[in-house]
Amino acid sequence: MSANTPERGETHNAVHGGARDSTVVQARNVEFHQHVGGRDPAVPPMQVPPPPPDFVNHEATIEWIRGLMDPDAPPRVVVCQGPLGIGKTSLLHQVAYATSAYFTGGQLTYEYERGGREDSDAALAQFLRSLGGASEALPSDPRDWPGAYRTHTRGRRLLVVVEGAWEPAQIRALIPSGPGSLVLASGDGPDLGELTIAARARLRDLEPLDAPAARTLLQRLVDFDLTDEDPEAVDHLLAVCAGLPLALVLVGARLGRGGPGGARELAARVRGPGGTLRAVGDERSNLDVIFQSAYAELSDGTAALYRTLGTWPGATFDRSVALAVGDDARLDELLAANLVETDEHGALRFRHALIRTHARDRAEAEDGAEARGERLRRMLDAAMVVLGFAERLVRGERLRVVDLDALLEGAEDPFGGDRAAASRWLSRERPTLMAVVLGCLDLRMYEHTWRFAELASALYLGERHVHDWVATGTAGADAARMAGDAAAEARLSSLVSRPLRDLGRDEEARARITRAVELVEDVDDELLRGSVWEFHGRYLEGVDPDAAVAAFDRSLRHNRASDDPRSVRGAALALLFRGGALISAGRPEEAAADVETALSDLLALPEGPDHRMAARARVMLGRAHAEAGRDRAAVTALNDALEGFGEYRRRSGEDLGYYEAEAHHRLAEVLGSLGAVGDRRRHLESARELYARVGSPRAKEVTGLLEQEFPEG
Fold first, then answer.
1. Rounded distance, CA 533 to CA 550, Å?
2. Is 588 exposed, middle or buried (0-12, 13-18, 19+ CB in 10 A)?
3. What is the pTM of this model?
4. In this structure, are residues 290 and 352 in contact, taking their beta carbons and an 8 Å threshold?
5. Bridge partners, 13 (sequence order)
6. Cα(473)–Cα(398) distance, rounded to whole angstroms?
7. Where are any strands of DSSP class E within 105-257?
8. Which of 332, 320, 325 is closest to 309 using CA atoms?
9. Which residues, including other chains, have CB under 8 Å from residue 322's CB and lie 6 or more apart?
């Protein structure tokens, strides 16, 4: 213990305020608050700089901070987090500017050296001087400064702005003691989460500017009207900046120097071989230089992980993907450095698209092509295992070309057998799945392309998303052809014929299903043959219903010739869809018989009832009854189908929006013939909403019906 530090309970003298005599004698400890040659303590310090005049957005965060202000509450700590360039400094300055009248004790600010490990002594010394103490009046032992700071601030309502802190202790030491005080800190590298426990801090993640705010900021940064610039060039520059204020400031500076008409040239530079990051700014101040400062702080192993993750095709990735090429400690370092973040579902992503660009650029500059390819394969293999578990949970034991048993051998199910969780994960992964499939194709990783494409169909078979399905399905089929895998190409070509038909791309659908039929004849797999002929029949139904019936007959024969247990379900589906073809061929009575048999078989499968397909069978049965003139029976079947879809969704968590939409659509048709106008409208509206949600072009068709029949809206 310091000789100047009193024992607990020991009394000591103190002199506060000015003294007539400069000599003060006391027996033991001195707590010295005399104003000797320092600033006037009667004038509150106002150290925080004003915000930039072009500040935009973050209104919600500012209002949230205002809501935390309470003149009678103990001091609060708020940490605003985000990557470099997200606008933390501007936000902190804006809050100080907007709340200056509230903080009657003044505003203090300190900026630690970025990435440094300095302690809080310099900040405390500066604050004590700012509060009225001269340098020579500070306690001689720095260990006494925190106590002196708390004493000085006890009667003040202060705002303390801290930037660049790396350690929680650098902020804790600067918390004033005055009621109603607030510490606003920013974090763009360190993990300051410990403050939520040690100081009851509140954390706030800052997001990029939305599109209108980004455009507003860019306009404020230049002296000419952006609407007079090339619209495509301006849109491209805004897209590149992706809402990052620092990027917009650098772009604005370049545009300002170039003057009117410069947007097209700058957009060309951004697209050019020099790279996006170097083009946004100048040689001394550009995004590459700025992000490099954060990158330089990483340990060697973490920097390698950062670069590797930059080569991942999708915007998000599972933790298993990162751990395939790194470890927990290195991943945690990236998270602590605010370069990578976790979303509310546990998925990981770079804090900003431009950080991801920097990571990818570093990988290309520092790692050889062979090393990049090997690490990417490890990440893809890890991701495929997670996708494989999700696909099996959602689809069960169904036909697939990918050997799931081999893929998943020895791996732990990340969903714990929870089918609903797997279904939700697939829905969230929709953009990543497409990015991975197309990215693998671009890299000529054909085996990975078709395997991801087939497993991703678990999402599309339930939720459709026809545009995504076409993109991944055609990529997968083409990759299988390049890999020389006839079974995979036949499977994916037959699958993708469905969304191609939905989009009205009939010639492409015909070419794909014809190719699948040709290929499957040389594949020794009766189950796959039955599936391909089923899809062939579904294509033919809208072209030649009688030929479709014959195709479903062929599918039925292949399924019945197979000794695979899954063929029982395949035969039931062939019957079900043959019923649809019979309806189209004008034979509704035969159709109803087929569908009723298929419905019974689907509910009595060896592996258990298939309630999802049973609900779809009831839709088909409703169609058959309607075509046979049994409207009441059709209404009953279609209502049963909707009830079945709802029950299935509640139990499984899987969204069957397209098929529910189809049931509503069919029911609306029957209700119209019965004269139930109000009910028809209600079901058409439900169909339109569901079709639109899954991106089906049929939403436009139903919208046209509603506008025609109910023009009043």
1. 10
2. buried
3. 0.69
4. no
5. 30
6. 18
7. 106-111, 158-163, 182-187, 202-205
8. 325
9. 305, 309, 331, 348, 379
